[in-house]
Amino acid sequence: MTPVSTTPKPDTTRSVRILLVDDEPALLEVVEDMAIRSVSCTVLRAANIVEARHILETQPIELMIADVHLPDGDGTSLLEILREHQPSASAMMMTGSPSMDRAIDALRHGAVDFLSKPFNYEQIAHGVRRALEHQAKGLRRDKRMDRLKVAVKRLGHARRMISKKVDLLCNDLVSAYGELSKQFDGVRYQEGFRKFIESAHDLEQLLCHAMDWMMRQLGYCNVAIWLAAENGEFQLGAYMKYTIAGEQILTDALKRVLLPMAMRDGLVHARGSALAARMTPQEANLLRAQDVLAINCTYLGESLATVIFFRDQSTPFSGDDQLLLRAISPIFAISLASMVRGHDGDDKDDDEPFLPGDTIDPDRDKSRHDAADWWKKGEPPPF
C-alpha cells in the first residue's frame, strides 16, 4: 500500500478529507495540488482498488476522486464500496478515454462528476467545489433525517404514553359510568318500590305489595319474610310458595341458618348445597338444588325484617338482583317502622304469618283491597 501523504491545510474554517485513487504518481501530485488550492483539505492517496477499499472501510472522507482504469479493476466499482461504508460522501470519476456510456454508468452509480484527462485547474476546482457542496447538502439532509427519526421516535414514545393514559382514563370513565349507572338504577328501584307500596294501609297489605313488587323484578321464586318482634325474636310474617311449601321444618331451618347470616353480612347469596353442613339431612334435602338470596332490612341500625328468596339453581339470582335488594331494603325497613308506629290495632295478630289461602275479613274496609292482594287471597300472580 502506498503511504498516505498529508499536506498542511490553509488557515480556513472548514477542512475536508479527499481520497485520490490513481496508479500514476505524477497525476496524483497534480490533482492533489489542484485540490488543495481549491479547498482546505487533507488528501489521502491510493494506487489501486485494494488500497482504496481499505481507506474507505477505516477512515472517514468527504470526497473520492478515482480513475476509471486501475491496475486491479474498474474504478467505478469503488462507487458501490463508497455508498456502503460512507453513504454521505461524494465521488468524481476521471479517465483518459472517455465515452458517453461510461460517463452515464458512473453517474448512475452515484458519481457527481466525470472528468476527461487531461484537465486543468479550473475543471478540478469547479468539480471539487461542486462535489463537496453536494456532499454537504447530503450531510445536512442526513442530519435532518436523523433528527426527524429521533423526533418520530420521541413522538412514538409520547403517543404510546398518551395512548396508555387515554386507556386508563377511558377505563376510569367506564368504571365511573358503571358506578353512576348502578347508583341511578338504585334510585330508580327505590322510587319504583316506594310508589308501589305507598298505597298499603296496614302491615298485611304492605307485605302483599312488597312481595308483589319484588317478584315482578326478580321473577318467580319462593319468598319468606321474617319480622322483628318486641322481644327481639323474629317471627315469620309471610311466606309465598312457588315450588316448595312453607312447612315448619323448612321455615325453622331458614330462620336458624339464614337469618343470623343475613343479619351479620347484610346480604347472603349461596347455593343450598353450601348450607347443608348447618342443616339436618332432611332440611338440607329441601334446599339442596336451590339458589338462595337473603337480605337484612334495617332502620336506624336496627334489623326490622329479613327477606329470603330461593328457587331452582338452574335460574340463579344475578348481581342486578342483589343491587335491587340492597337499594330497596332500607325503603322497606322505613315503611315497616312507619307502619308499626301508625298501627291501628287490627284484629289479626302481627305475630301470625300471612300464608297463601288466608281469607280477608269481609268486614274490613273494601277500599283497602287492590291488585296486590292476590297473594293473600291465594290467587295466581297477575304478572
Architecture overview:
The protein has 383 residues and is an alpha/beta fold. It has 2 domains: 129 residues, Response regulator (Rossmann fold, 3-Layer(aba) Sandwich); 180 residues, Beta-Lactamase, CATH 3.30.450. 49% of the residues lie in helices and 19% in strands. It has 10 helices and 12 strands. The protein has a 5-stranded parallel beta sheet with strand order 2-1-3-6-7, sandwiched between helices. β4 and β5 form a beta hairpin. α2 packs parallel to α3 and α5 runs parallel beside α9. The longest helix is centred in the middle third of the chain and has 77 residues. The protein is rod-shaped, with a radius of gyration of 49 Å. It starts with 15 loop residues before the first strand and ends in a 6-residue tail after the last helix. 32% of the residues are buried. The N terminus is likely disordered.
Summarize the entry for a quick read.
With 383 residues, the protein is of the alpha/beta class.
Strand order of the largest sheet: 2-1-3-6-7
Termini separation comes to 105 Å
Query: Beta-sheet strand percentage?
Result: 15-25%
Q: Determine the fraction of residues in helical runs and give it as a percent range.
A: 40-55%
Q: Which key phrases capture this entry?
A:
disordered N terminus, alpha/beta, 2 domains, Beta-Lactamase, 383 residues, five-stranded antiparallel beta sheet, Rossmann fold, 49% helix
List the helices and strands and how they pair.
Elements: E1 16-21, H1 25-38, E2 41-46, H2 49-58, E3 63-67, E4 69-70, E5 73-74, H3 77-85, E6 90-95, H4 100-108, E7 113-116, H5 121-197, H6 203-218, E8 222-228, E9 234-240, H7 248-265, E10 267-271, H8 281-287, E11 290-299, E12 302-312, H9 319-341, H10 374-377
Parallel strand pairs: 1-2, 1-3, 3-6, 6-7
Antiparallel strand pairs: 4-5, 8-9, 8-12, 10-11, 11-12
Helix pairs in contact: 1-5, 2-3, 5-9, 6-9
